[in-house]
Amino acid sequence: MRAMMRLMLVAIIAGGIAPAVSYAAEEPPATQAEPNAPPSPTPAVPVVPKDAPPPPSVTIIGASDAHGVLGRDVRSAADEDMGRIVDVVVDRTGKVRAAVIDFGGFLGVGSRKIVVDWNALHFGKIANKKDSISLELTKAQVAAAPEYKEDTPIVVLGASGTLQPLQFIP
Predict the structure, then answer these.
(1) Can you give the pTM of this predicted structure?
(2) Which of 39, 60, 66, 111 is the most exposed place for a label (fewest CB within 10 A)?
(3) Which distant-in-sequence residues (6+ apart) come within 8 Å of 27 by Cβ?
(4) Percent of the chain with pLDDT over 70
């Protein structure tokens, strides 16, 4: 107990503020063989405050099980270059609804952004960054789609025709 009081006194004198996490240390019992020997160090155990938030959950995903999609090339079923994914559209609940594809043009000149339904994309073969994502639409279908412009209603091009409208409440 005296060791704990000494730690608190040292903290107050040194910084004027007690540490956010205190460490409990017990004074070892004195032995008769060596009265002047320094006490053996006792491992400190952190004291967690009662109102501390719980630790975050941790999930480990294998390197071959998931990959980022931004910047990935998109190709049609006929292996036509459809552009690359530049953004992902989510609804207010956080559910992924669509992908924004930078379509057409050459080296970024003359390209435009098209929004395609997330379910029209297939991610089966994206083991490394060179692999592309496939799209269930033809180049002609995507070329006929209206351009995506931020802060305007989003026209989502889908392959199956089963899209549900995005409900945005002002």
Answers:
(1) 0.60
(2) 60
(3) 1, 2, 3, 39
(4) 62
Side chain identity at residue 14, one-letter code: A
Is 136:159 a contact under the CB 8 Å cutoff?
A: yes
Q: Which two tokens stand for residue 51?
A: 């109102």
Question: 114 near 157, Cβ under 8 Å?
Answer: yes
For the segment 2-36, what is each residue's pLDDT rounded down to a tens digit?
444 444 444 444 444 444 444 444 445 555 555 66
Contact 39, 99 (CB under 8 A): no
Structural domains of the chain, with CATH: 2-46 (no CATH), 73-157 (2.30.30.240)
Rounded distance, CA 119 to CA 159, Å? 8
Q: How many CA atoms lie less than 13 Å away from 169 in the CB half-sphere?
A: 2
